[in-house]
C-alpha cells in the first residue's frame, strides 16, 4: 500500500493542531493536579481532538478515503470544526477552574498555564484548518464545508453547552415556560445533529423530499423556536415578578467557576447566540444552492 504524504498548508495545520492538543493533555496529566470532573472534560477535549486528527492524517496518508464509511468531503472539516470548539471550551474552562484564584506549588501552576497556552494554540490551529478546508465561492463541495454546514456544527455545540448548564443544577422545571425552552433546545439539537449525520454518512439522497428545501424550512422553524426561548428564558429567570432573581448573589463572588446564577445567565446568552446562528443559517440556506451535497 503506497504511502502518500503531500506537504500543504492544510497538512501542516493538522499536524500543528495535533501536536498542540497532545502537549496540552500530556502536561495536564503530568503535573496539573486535576481533582474533579472539569479537568477530565478538558483532557477529553484535547485527547479526542488529537486522536481524531491523527486518524484523518493516517487515512489520507494511506489513501483510504474511498474505503472510509463516511463522506470524506464532509467528515474532516466537520471534525475540525468540532475539535476547534472543544479546544476553545477547554481553553476557557480550564483556567476558570484551575487558575482563577489558585495559590499552590509553582510547578503545578506552570503546568496549568502551559496546558492553557497549548489549548489556545490548538484552537487557532483547528480554526486555520477549517478556514483552509471550507468551500470557496463557486466551488463544488460537501455541505459541511459550506457556511450552513459549519453553522450546524456550532449550533449543536452551543446546544450541548446549554444542556450542561441547564441540568446542573436542574433549572428547567420551574414552570411550563422554562420547560418549553428545554423542548426548543432539544428539538433543534436533534434536527441539526440528524442533518450533520446524514451529510457525513451520505444519506441525504434517501429522503423522500428535497433536502435543500427541508434545510430552508427547518432553519425558518428553528429561528422562530429560538426566538421564543431567547425571550422567555430571561423573563422567567431574571424578572422578580415571574419568580426570577434579577441581581447576582454575593455568594457567587467567592465560588470557583460558575455559580447557579451565572449558569442561568450563560443559558440566556447562549440562547441568543444560537438564535443568531440559526438566523445566519436561514439566510445562507435561502441564498445558496449546492450542486453536490
Protein traits:
single chain; 293 residues; mainly alpha; 8 helices
Mind explaining what this structure looks like?
The protein is mainly alpha-helical and 293 residues long. The chain has eight helices and no strands.
Give a nutshell description of this structure.
The chain is 69% helix and 0% strand.
H/E element sequence: HHHHHHHH
Query: How confident is the prediction overall: mean pLDDT?
Result: 88
Could you tell me the strand content as a percent range?
A: under 5%
| Helix run count | 8
Rg, nearest Å: 21 Å
Shape: flat
* Terminal Cα span: 30 Å
Q: Largest sheet at a glance?
A: none
Helix coverage percent: 55-70%
Give the class from helix and strand content and strand pairing. mainly alpha
Write the layout of secondary structure elements.
Layout: H1 9-31, H2 37-61, H3 75-98, H4 106-133, H5 147-167, H6 176-200, H7 211-238, H8 260-287
